[in-house]
Amino acid sequence: MPSTNIPTPASERLHALDAVRAYALLLGIVLHAALSFVPPGPSRIWFVEDIHPSPLLGITTFVIHVFRMTTFFLMAGLFARMSLHRRGAAEFIKDRLLRIALPLVVGWPLVFAPMVAVVIWASRFPHGGPVPGAAGWPPALPSFPLAHLWFLYVLIELYAAALLLRWVVTTIDADGRWRAAADRLFALIMHSRLAPAILALPIMIALSLDPRWIGFIGVRTPDTSLITNGQAWIGFGSAFAVGWLLHRQIALLQVLARRWLLTTIAALGLIGLSFALALALLLASGHLWAAPVDLATLRLAGAIVYALAIWTASFAAIGLALRFMAGFSRTRRYLADASYWLYLIHMPIVMALQVAVSQLDWPWSVKYALILLVAVPTMLASYHLLVRNTIVGRALNGRRQAGKQAAMPLLGSSAPT
Questions:
Q1: Taking the model in full, what pTM does it have?
Q2: End-to-end CA distance of the chain, in Å?
Q3: What's the mean pLDDT in 108-127?
């Protein structure tokens, strides 16, 4: 008889990975709230610039931007395969349409309209208004301002690609021999200490081949077009694939848990070096610094280190969560449930607060704290009162399980397909 503390497929809960996914979304709010304080560069990157910029917040946004979305899409791939095997293909598609496609279609106009209003308001102030080079309105398709909801659009594309590829593979590889070989190869990679370097190769090549790439851009997000750019497909698609393969052999997560300290130290070093190279490339490309090497070499070095930082930091984030957040926590569970709603609605709220404080002669630390202390509790209140126990909450997060659930053991592998 199986132990009662091992969850069934219908009720399994990976508490640490739920936390990783939630914090990846919540870090997006922290990042976006800081963008108005990033010191100005050759061109304006945000719709408003605060009169008191902060180098510290500039570094903070860089650090978060390195690993946040790769980590999110890795978790998305893992949970997608889990959901597919729990529900079956037909129910999985129905669930994704309800929880991903519907929020995109319904949520986009509801958040984009007030965002436009805030940008118009910002135009009244120095260094405010539409970012230089921004597309006009109405957009000429396929150009389209997906804004911060681009991740929903890409998720839909990745779900479709995964289902199609799975059908092709199961059709061709009827006896599962190729899949077993692929699993063995993936396990060898994950057990290797060079795993981040091996997995970084695709995005490393993509970044190094971009003649306009600088480290502060990171992986180019597809937020202005309905045609997802190649970097996003490679960077986020490969992360989604790794998550999918991890769920095939869930015990491999133990490798990340065991190496959390070493991976974290390596991630911090790589992020620091990546920031230094990004700054050097920015100064050299703006003719503000005479680099000892040409721009192409500097860009190549930056791409290599940045790609390594992406995967090392993503593994560190997951390892830390597995090491320190494996158990059940009501607070983390609540934040995991709330994070999706908060991320969907946060942008116009944060943007309005940024404009409101941008011209005040207060320290940047006070203004940044004020933005978060007003925005986050307000959004949490809206979730608790208007979403959590309503049809909207069920659509976004599915049916909530009552009470404490056991953490999923990192044993064996899951279904064979």
A1: 0.92
A2: 26
A3: 95
